[in-house]
From TrEMBL, chain A:
<dbReference type="InterPro" id="IPR016135">
    <property type="entry name" value="UBQ-conjugating_enzyme/RWD"/>
</dbReference>
<feature type="active site" description="Glycyl thioester intermediate">
    <location>
        <position position="89"/>
    </location>
</feature>
<protein>
    <recommendedName>
        <fullName>E2 ubiquitin-conjugating enzyme</fullName>
        <ecNumber>2.3.2.23</ecNumber>
    </recommendedName>
</protein>
<feature type="domain" description="UBA">
    <location>
        <begin position="156"/>
        <end position="195"/>
    </location>
</feature>
<dbReference type="GO" id="GO:0061631">
    <property type="term" value="F:ubiquitin conjugating enzyme activity"/>
</dbReference>
<keyword id="KW-0547">Nucleotide-binding</keyword>
<dbReference type="Pfam" id="PF00179">
    <property type="entry name" value="UQ_con"/>
</dbReference>
<comment type="similarity">
    <text>Belongs to the ubiquitin-conjugating enzyme family.</text>
</comment>
<dbReference type="InterPro" id="IPR009060">
    <property type="entry name" value="UBA-like_sf"/>
</dbReference>
TrEMBL record, chain B:
<feature type="region of interest" description="Disordered">
    <location>
        <begin position="1"/>
        <end position="42"/>
    </location>
</feature>
<dbReference type="GO" id="GO:0030014">
    <property type="term" value="C:CCR4-NOT complex"/>
</dbReference>
<feature type="compositionally biased region" description="Low complexity">
    <location>
        <begin position="139"/>
        <end position="156"/>
    </location>
</feature>
<dbReference type="Pfam" id="PF14570">
    <property type="entry name" value="zf-RING_4"/>
</dbReference>
<dbReference type="GO" id="GO:0016567">
    <property type="term" value="P:protein ubiquitination"/>
</dbReference>
<feature type="compositionally biased region" description="Low complexity">
    <location>
        <begin position="204"/>
        <end position="214"/>
    </location>
</feature>
<feature type="compositionally biased region" description="Basic and acidic residues">
    <location>
        <begin position="81"/>
        <end position="90"/>
    </location>
</feature>
<feature type="region of interest" description="Disordered">
    <location>
        <begin position="57"/>
        <end position="173"/>
    </location>
</feature>
<keyword id="KW-0863">Zinc-finger</keyword>
Length: 195, 350
């Protein structure tokens, strides 16, 4: 089974400096420690700047001796990330995984992957073609996707959460509902009141 | 002579039982066989002693008065030590009752009196010893001289006196049981056997006795280290408390040494916990450098990795190639030393 104590320590360790690193991990639904949700901040100076990218993390039974399975939930326009399903092409998540790596270092590697695409080894051939042939279009598309998919749920998220929590709703419920309605404060309030 | 002390010990049976509990189940079989052998041997000793008593006891008494080395020097500690050994082996009460019942005619009826018994019980054993010295020659002499303090040599002397069929079995059990002490007794057995040709009848009792006693002291000491520190009958002079205290200290030394060693190899600071499983590294793990890259990990994780792809988590190189490069072998030597030192220092604690 998953090394629970290691994963718990990793979570604590990773979330300790999430403001600095721009990387955080949380339990996906709280029921199992083998299903996590990671978030990374879009690196500065890239089309992904300002976005917050959510990554679905599933830990296989052999973790940390087997790599975690990671997949972008947030839609990303990137040569090494599938624009369809968020599948990631990154060696350390496959054959170059090492048990000395952690979820945090893997997420940081994803962050680095956003800054430094590797179009020669693409996951999404269309994006890779665009990146190689027409970088400006690629950059614009990537920026648009970041605006469209990586920011809506996160802009002012903390303020919205704060507001709803002050209304008396539990914070974790507020967050999950806000996430489910894609950050729409009014819909979230409606859902919270009805649920 | 041992009787009075035994009887004395039996007056505090709770302490004796505590000691018995501490022995644990491991020596249960040994206890039983020893008990049988002892009983027979003591019966024979008592009989022998009684026979020779009339002849030798005046001399023995005179020797004690004159301060002869054989009688004066080894004796004062003897009653106590013997009683301790018996108590440690967890058979004081049963044995005492049996032997006392069998040798009722020898001693007085008042076994509880410490004043009375030395007089009445010393002679038989002294006589036995003297008989060995003069009659049977070197081997029996030395073994007889050590009969006081070592249960092993008690069975030796039993051999000489035509002992019981359980002797071999008993010896075998003892050898197994004291396998830890074998390394110590190797030297001692050399010392012990060399004087055998020289020791014989030529020397009556005085000069070889202290020498043999001295050589036999070592295994005795090593055995008495098996005392638990809180044992009531544990001799005050035993240094095993300092042993215990030195155990963490030696661990600290290991840490220091390893820290220095790894620093010299240009490795990062010694990790406190395994980077794979996040469990604390013990000194064995910390000295375990399976890969020349210096990546530390615990033995469990290393084994797990070897069962899979066998690549070092630090540098992703195959462990097999790394092990032939000398990093593995050197470390295995180091690990061996570490284990040895640990088992040595933990041995006395049982």
């Amino acid at each position: 089974m998953v090394d629970v104590s290691r994963v718990q320590k990793e979570l604590t360790e990773c979330n300790r400096d999430k403001e600095v690193s721009g990387v955080s991990i949380a339990l996906h639904d709280g029921s199992t420690i083998s299903h996590l949700t990671g978030t990374i901040a879009g690196p500065l100076g890239t089309p992904y700047e300002g976005g917050t990218f959510v990554i679905d993390i599933r830990l296989p039974g052999g973790y940390p001796f087997e790599p975690p399975k990671m997949q972008f939930i947030t839609k990303v326009w990137h040569p090494n990330i599938s624009s369809q399903n968020g599948a990631i092409c990154l060696d350390i998540l496959k054959d170059q995984w090492s048990p000395a790596l952690t979820l945090k270092t893997a997420l940081l590697s994803l962050q680095a992957l956003l800054s430094a695409p590797a179009p020669d080894d693409p996951q999404d051939a269309v994006v890779a073609q665009q990146y190689l042939r027409d970088y400006s279009t690629f950059s614009a598309t990537a920026r648009y996707w970041t605006e469209a998919f990586a920011k809506s749920t996160s802009t002012g998220m903390e303020e919205k959460v704060q507001k709803l929590v002050e209304m008396g709703f539990p914070e974790d419920m507020v967050r999950s509902v806000l996430k489910s309605v894609n950050g729409d404060e009014n819909m979230a309030l409606e859902k919270l009141c009805s649920g | 002579m041992g009787y009075d002390a035994m009887a004395h010990d039996a007056s505090s049976p709770a302490a004796a039982r505590d000691a018995k509990k501490k022995r644990g189940n491991r020596s249960a079989k040994l206890k039983q066989s020893k008990l049988d052998v002892r009983r027979e041997q003591w019966l024979s000793q008592v009989k022998d002693g009684k026979e020779v008593k009339a002849v030798v006891s005046p001399g023995a008494a005179a020797g004690a008065n004159s301060g002869s080395p054989i009688l004066a020097s080894p004796h004062p500690p003897l009653p106590r030590r013997r009683a301790e050994i018996r108590t440690r082996e967890g058979e004081p009460e049963d044995y005492k009752e049996d032997s006392v019942g069998a040798s009722q005619d020898v001693g007085s009826s008042d076994h509880e009196s410490p004043l009375h018994s030395p007089v009445s019980y010393n002679p038989p054993v002294d006589c036995l010893q003297q008989k060995h010295c003069s009659g049977n020659g070197g081997r029996s002499f030395s073994s007889g001289s050590s009969a006081w303090s070592s249960s092993r040599s008690v069975s030796d002397s039993d051999n000489d006196t035509g002992g019981s069929p359980e002797n071999d079995d008993d010896d075998g059990v003892l050898d197994d049981w004291e396998a830890v002490a074998d390394a110590l007794s190797v030297d001692d057995s050399h010392n012990h056997q060399e004087p055998v040709p020289a020791a014989p009848p030529v020397v009556p009792a005085s000069s070889p006795e202290p020498a043999n006693a001295a050589t036999r002291q070592e295994p005795i000491k090593s055995r008495t280290r098996a005392w638990s520190p809180d044992d009531v009958f544990r001799p005050q002079s035993l240094p095993s408390l300092s042993k215990q205290a030195s155990f963490p200290a030696s661990m600290g030394d290991c840490w220091v040494a390893m820290g220095i060693g790894s620093a010299q190899k240009g490795i990062l600071l010694l990790p406190i916990s395994c980077p794979i499983c996040y469990e604390d590294l013990d000194p064995t793990d910390s000295s375990f450098l399976p890969c020349p890259c210096g990546f530390h990990l615990c033995l469990f994780c290393h084994k797990r990795i070897l069962e899979a792809d066998g690549r070092c988590p630090g540098c992703r190189k195959q462990y097999t190639s790394a092990s032939s490069g000398g990093g593995m072998t050197g470390n295995e030597c180091e690990m061996g030393n570490l284990r040895l030192s640990r088992s040595c220092s933990m041995g006395p604690r049982y």
